[in-house]
């Protein structure tokens, strides 16, 4: 949600101002089937025409795993049937998309258990198409029969215009720098596991729980939960013949994740990961990219952090460097701690700001509403007033906006500049299917707008003024013919005008602006 | 958590330091030998096996790519173990090794030997027989494979007797499939049979914001189901995936299984017929109406001829098909029952105690979106009804003979959420608590009682006869959870009770010995750190043997084996 999207032009607003009960005539409507994994639908330019195409993962008993590519034509239309079908061979575990070959459009990077390959979707076969790029023992070794994983957002670590790969291996990470002619060079290997720590010292996560659900005639269902001491020998001893015979294989292998991100002032991508420090607390580690594009063998900066709660990396103050957020929840009480990035280091023992919220299912994002590089904080949560629930079976969704801080030490203002409490009853449940989108400048006034599903399922857009107030009435609305469960707004054809992607239950509708 | 539970460890610890109050500290237990051991730090597990087939249990230590055997000596050779060095060990090379143990493979001389088997790099299966207490040279069992057994070294239960001929066969995991290799008497293999497998795979290779997440893969591959479904005495193969329900009947001649299923149900086709979920078709006044899109398949003998029949439920329609010795007669259902309402599930169970399985059809009342909103804030109840269609021999009665109602009572969602937080806090508080490792074993010779062993930092305390012998497994009957009886038709499950009574027990065994003096105290050679007690039976006598695992560090892991002396 924090990603900065380029401002969209005024044309869309001019065309959409006013209400409409159906798709605008200046928008080309296309509909395609969503398949089993609607969240995995991708948008990339696959044929090099500067228009985004759709990639839909698909599985069938006959064809196995496929990527269905729907190419957008010059008129903004998507065909009902896929333009290309890319077979995913059984050995493939994951894929990514990058511009690797001189031919226009993006190619596929295919990741198998022991190597990485490239493939063009423009060629219908693997023959004379599949190219081995390099060997790498991936952290995952067994492919899923029905689904192929997608690795999004390949970084350009050194700014040379070529996609790079930060790949987890069996025991460590490898940074592969991309170059011309599909060349990838292993530039750095590092472990995200603290190698200095004696395995005997690694905290074992406190007590284990032994849960037994017993059924007996006297007490009915009896739930017995017993605490077991932390043990370095859990499951260590067993008898060969007592083994579980319902499982052919059970195995798992995990390591802390690493993220490529800009962490200091030098405009280069660095590497961040979290593990257990020598003091047995959680620890954030930063490997900073040096001027020559190299990395040190050990982290340039480390800092201890309490690992309870969700720990996220997010640029909250718009300086282009990722900050650290720690979000703690206790039923309906939430505490958010902001730790600002200080040129590649943090004061993790002392948050720069602490904010507290009361509600359920808190959602947090930052968005540069005014487009001035100073993001506002958006908070959304639900409350369930008992009186409302009993009287008319309804809940309340609250949307709050906090302006950038104006006082010293404030990341965001302590009090919300805007608050919207909406009551949703059982009849208005369609309005709950998607959160309010604050990332798009729909009317082209240089300010983001609030796009939301109204209680009746109508998609509406309201302006947000300089005081972060939502306009009382929408400047645009669209009444879909089918329920919208999720929506995205993106410029699909590069004309600077926002296009709409509406996700229904079994299909999606694309509304692409036309001249 | 009671105050007593909190204080118990603290009470026990000072007691252990008062020699006047306690038994003399010693370095072993009466009737036991104490065998300290130090193993390489990378040892991942110990397996108890009788590798030399002498009736005494040996210890196989498994480390990445290295298998080490410690044989138990017979009393004639001094008994016990020598943990100073393995008696035999082998090193396996490969990035992916799935291993298994078996007694059903002959060695090069044709004698049946305990063997280590390994699927190496997914391409070949090797066997290392144990001969004269040594790993013999490997024997090629099968090669030219294309398999996935996960990265690293993993236990792979891939060698088992599928066709009950006394020879182990092989189940080789592939990409979403299992290849079954039936071994012939001459050590050759029949052409492999490929069956689909719904592997449970959880993979994460990338994180965007949440850096506390890990990357890697968790994998579980279920074994195939084998049982005789057509009453010919030979195990048949039942393969279930999301898409298909396949049955391969064993054949009397030629290859054991046919290459295609003897009969199958296409679950995709059923789902297509029932229709896909569409939000726009959802009846907000009856969300449970979605159950009409569900289906289930039961393979079970209904008519008592020993051959499994097929019960197919599609929404509220239940069809019964007849099993034959050669397959399933899907041409015409023997019976079709239709139920109105929202059918949740069906199963077969003898209700009227006539020895024949009856059909239980469960329905759930209509639930609206309004109900869900209401239950967010206030407690609710859902009635589930069971209709029992008695088995009349060839089929079920047209009308149910009995109707049961189960009221499922639950607290509001808000209350459940707050209870979940309370439970999480209870679990978190355990991080601060001292929980002593304990084990219940038979150290003394009293059959009717058991002894409690408590592992402290520097000693093991033994409280003789302090625990009850394990009770025979209760003869739980069907629906015992509801206090079920044939004379009662109204039942209740109250989830609120679970929440109200929820408590995590700590040191519960120690309550039984509160105030008691341990009969034995065993001094430990090194301090215990995150250790554990494990009970085993290694030499066949009536006394349990005890592994005392003390600590594992960068260089080694250490412990103590208390081995009873017969």
Task: Outline the structure in words.
The complex is a heterodimer of chains A (515) and B (566). Chain A contains 2 helices and 37 strands. Chain A has helices at 10-16, 386-392; strands at residues 18-20, 27-33, 42-44, 53-60, 64-70, 84-87, 94-98, 107-111, 115-119, 131-135, 149-150, 165-168, 173-178, 184-190, 208-216, 220-228, 237-239, 247-256, 258-261, 270-276, 282-287, 301-305, 310-314, 323-330, 333-339, 353-358, 360-367, 376-383, 394-402, 418-425, 437-440, 449-453, 459-463, 476-478, 486-490, 499-503, 507-513. In chain A, the strands form 9 sheets. Chain A has a 5-stranded mixed sheet with strand order 1-34-33-32-31, with no helix packed on it. Chain A has a 5-stranded mixed sheet with strand order 10-9-8-7-11, with no helix packed on it. In chain A, a hairpin with an 8-residue loop joins strand 27 and strand 28. Chain A is globular, with a radius of gyration of 26 Å. Mean pLDDT of chain A is 88; it is low at 1-25. By secondary structure, chain B is mainly beta. In chain B, the strands form 9 sheets. In chain B, strands 7, 8, 9, 10, 11 and 12 form a 6-stranded mixed sheet that branches. A 5-stranded mixed sheet of chain B has the order 1-37-34-33-32, with no helix packed on it. Chain B is globular, with a radius of gyration of 29 Å. Mean pLDDT of chain B is 89; it is low at 1-22. The chains are: A mainly beta (515), B mainly beta (566).
């Amino acid at each position: 949600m924090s990603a900065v999207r380029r401002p969209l032009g005024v044309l869309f607003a001019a065309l959409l101002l006013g209400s409409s009960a159906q798709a605008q005539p200046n928008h080309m409507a296309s509909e395609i089937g969503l398949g089993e994994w609607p969240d995995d639908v991708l948008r990339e330019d696959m044929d090099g025409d500067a228009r985004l195409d759709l990639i839909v993962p698909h599985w069938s008993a006959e064809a196995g795993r496929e990527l269905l590519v729907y190419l957008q034509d010059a008129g903004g239309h998507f065909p009902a049937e896929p333009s290309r079908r890319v077979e995913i061979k059984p050995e493939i575990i994951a894929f990514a998309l990058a511009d690797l070959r001189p031919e226009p459009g993006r190619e596929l990077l295919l990741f198998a258990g022991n190597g990485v390959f490239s493939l063009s979707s423009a060629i219908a076969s693997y023959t004379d198409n599949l190219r081995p790029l390099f060997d790498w023992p991936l952290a995952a070794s067994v492919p899923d029969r029905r689904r192929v994983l997608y690795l999004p957002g390949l970084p350009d670590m050194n700014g040379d215009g070529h996609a790079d790969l930060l790949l987890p291996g069996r025991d460590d990470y490898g940074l592969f720098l991309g170059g011309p002619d599909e060349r990838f060079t292993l530039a750095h290997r590092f472990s995200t596991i603290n190698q200095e720590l004696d395995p005997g010292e690694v905290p074992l996560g406190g007590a284990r729980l032994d849960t037994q659900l017993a059924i007996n005639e006297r007490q009915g269902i009896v739930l017995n939960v017993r605490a077991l001491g932390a043990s370095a020998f859990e499951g260590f001893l067993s008898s060969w013949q007592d083994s579980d015979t319902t499982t052919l294989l059970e195995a798992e292998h995990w390591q802390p994740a690493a993220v490529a991100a800009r962490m200091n002032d030098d405009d280069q991508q660095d590497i961040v990961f979290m593990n257990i420090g020598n003091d047995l607390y959680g620890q954030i580690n930063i490997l900073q990219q040096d001027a020559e594009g190299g990395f040190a063998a050990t982290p340039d900066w480390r800092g201890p952090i309490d690992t309870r709660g969700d720990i996220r990396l997010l640029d909250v103050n718009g300086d282009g460097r990722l900050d650290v957020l720690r979000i703690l929840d206790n039923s309906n009480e939430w505490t958010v701690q902001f730790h600002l990035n200080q040129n590649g280091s943090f004061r993790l023992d002392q948050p720069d700001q602490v904010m507290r919220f009361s509600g359920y299912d808190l959602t947090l994002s930052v968005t540069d509403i005014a487009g001035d590089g100073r993001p506002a904080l958006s908070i959304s949560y639900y409350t369930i007033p008992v009186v409302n629930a009993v009287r008319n079976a309804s809940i309340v969704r609250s949307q709050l906006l906090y302006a950038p801080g104006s006082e010293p030490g404030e990341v965001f203002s302590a009090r919300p500049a805007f608050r919207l409490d909406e009551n949703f009853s059982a009849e208005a449940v369609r309005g709950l299917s998607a959160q309010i989108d604050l990332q798009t400048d729909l009317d082209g006034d240089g300010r983001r707008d609030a796009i939301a599903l109204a209680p009746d399922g109508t998609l509406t857009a309201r302006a947000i003024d300089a005081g972060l107030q939502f306009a009382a009435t929408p400047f645009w609305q669209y009444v879909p013919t089918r329920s919208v469960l999720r929506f995205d707004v993106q410029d699909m054809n590069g004309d600077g005008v926002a296009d709409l992607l509406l996700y229904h239950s079994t299909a999606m509708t694309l509304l692409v602006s036309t001249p | 958590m009671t105050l007593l539970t909190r204080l118990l460890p603290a009470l026990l610890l000072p007691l252990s330091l008062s020699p006047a109050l306690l038994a003399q500290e010693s370095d072993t237990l009466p009737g036991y030998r104490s065998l300290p051991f130090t193993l390489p730090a990378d040892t991942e597990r110990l397996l108890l096996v009788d590798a030399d087939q002498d009736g005494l249990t040996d210890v196989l230590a498994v480390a990445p790519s290295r298998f080490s055997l410690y044989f138990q000596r017979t009393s004639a050779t001094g008994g016990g173990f020598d943990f100073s060095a393995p008696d035999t060990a082998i090193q396996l090379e490969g990035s992916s090794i799935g291993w298994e143990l078996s007694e059903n493979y002959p060695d090069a001389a044709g004698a049946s030997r305990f063997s280590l088997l390994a699927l190496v790099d997914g391409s070949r299966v090797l066997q290392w027989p144990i001969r004269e207490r040594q790993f013999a040279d490997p024997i090629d069992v099968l090669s030219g494979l294309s398999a996935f057994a996960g990265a690293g070294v993993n236990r792979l239960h891939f060698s088992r007797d599928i066709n009950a001929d006394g020879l182990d066969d092989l189940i080789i995991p592939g990409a979403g499939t299992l290849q079954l290799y039936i071994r012939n008497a001459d050590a050759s293999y029949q052409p492999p049979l490929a069956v689909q497998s719904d592997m449970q795979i959880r993979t994460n290779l990338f994180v965007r914001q949440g850096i506390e997440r890990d990357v890697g893969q968790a994998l579980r591959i279920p074994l195939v189901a084998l049982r005789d479904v057509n009453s010919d005495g030979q195990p048949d193969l039942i393969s279930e995936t999301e898409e298909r329900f396949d049955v391969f009947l064993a054949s009397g001649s030629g290859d054991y299984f046919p290459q295609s299923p003897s009969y199958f149900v296409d679950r995709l086709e059923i789902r297509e017929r029932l229709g896909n979920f569409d939000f726009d078709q959802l009846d907000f006044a009856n969300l449970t109406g979605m159950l009409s899109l569900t289906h289930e398949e039961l393979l079970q003998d209904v008519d008592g001829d020993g051959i499994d029949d097929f019960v197919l439920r599609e929404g509220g329609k239940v069809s019964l098909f007849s099993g034959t010795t050669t397959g399933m007669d899907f041409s015409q259902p023997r019976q079709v029952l239709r139920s109105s309402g929202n059918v949740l599930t069906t199963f077969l169970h003898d209700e009227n105690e006539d020895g024949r399985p009856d059909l239980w059809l469960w329905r759930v009342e209509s639930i609206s979106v309004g109900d869900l909103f209401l239950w967010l804030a206030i407690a609710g109840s859902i009635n589930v009804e069971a209709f029992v269609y008695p088995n009349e021999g060839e089929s079920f009665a047209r009308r149910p003979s009995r109707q049961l109602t189960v009221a499922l009572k639950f607290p509001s969602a808000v209350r459940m959420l707050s209870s979940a937080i309370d439970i999480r806090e209870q679990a978190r508080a355990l991080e601060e608590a001292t929980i002593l490792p304990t084990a219940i074993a038979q150290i003394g010779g009293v059959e009717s009682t058991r002894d409690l062993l408590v592992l402290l930092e520097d000693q093991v305390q033994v409280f003789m006869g302090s625990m009850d012998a394990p009770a025979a497994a209760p003869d739980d009957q069907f629906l015992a959870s509801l206090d079920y009886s044939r004379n009662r038709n109204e039942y209740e499950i109250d989830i609120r009770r679970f929440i109200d009574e929820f408590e995590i027990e700590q040191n519960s065994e120690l309550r039984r010995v509160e105030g008691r003096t341990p009969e034995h105290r065993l001094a430990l050679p090194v301090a215990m750190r995150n250790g554990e007690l494990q009970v085993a039976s290694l030499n066949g006598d009536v006394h349990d043997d005890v592994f005392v695992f003390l600590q594992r560090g960068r260089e080694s892991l250490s412990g103590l084996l208390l081995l009873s002396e017969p």
